[in-house]
Amino acid sequence: MKPEKYKLKSGETRWRFQIALPRDPLTGKRRTTRRSGFHTREQANIALTRLKSQLNREQKISPARTYQEIKTFKDVYEEWLVIYKTTVKPTIYFDPKFQE
């Protein structure tokens, strides 16, 4: 989790880090992400801190979804249809071609 040093083929030294992300809510699999190419350890630490704070904000805003929360196509269609009715003329919505 802390930044580590590595060398490029050209001999230059760069810094990288790897961080564990929350588990995938649908599959339950572990996730990680890597960032690399930082010129200094300080730059890598700053990027790591920013990524951690972004992850914390996202977890507070959007909790993990479960299979029960996933909507079917029919559910999404019905929600869309309610909104669609308000955006078009009644003659379009009640056209016989669109009736079930």
Secondary structure: elements and pairs:
Blueprint: E1 4-7, E2 13-21, E3 31-38, H1 41-61, H2 73-87, H3 90-93
Antiparallel strand pairs: 1-2, 2-3
Total count of helical runs of at least 4 residues: 3
Total count of strands: 3
Order of helices and strands: EEEHHH
Residues in β-strands, percent: 15-25%
Shape: elongated
Keywords:
single chain; 100 residues; alpha+beta; three-stranded antiparallel sheet; 3 strands; elongated
Describe it.
- With 100 residues, this protein is an alpha+beta fold.
- It is built from three helices and three strands.
- Strand 1 and strand 2 (13-21) form a beta hairpin.
- The longest helix is centred in the middle third of the chain and has 21 residues, at 41-61.
- The protein is elongated and about 70 Å long.
- The termini are far apart.
Give a summary of the structure in a few sentences:
The chain has 100 residues and is α+β, with helices and mostly antiparallel strands.
